[in-house]
Amino acid sequence: MNNQEYRMDRTQFQKQTFQEADMQYGYWQSKSIAERFRAAYYLISVAYNFDLQNPPRMDKAAFSMRKHTS
Question: For residue 53, how many C-alpha atoms fall within 13 Å in the half-sphere facing its CB?
Answer without folding.
Answer: 4
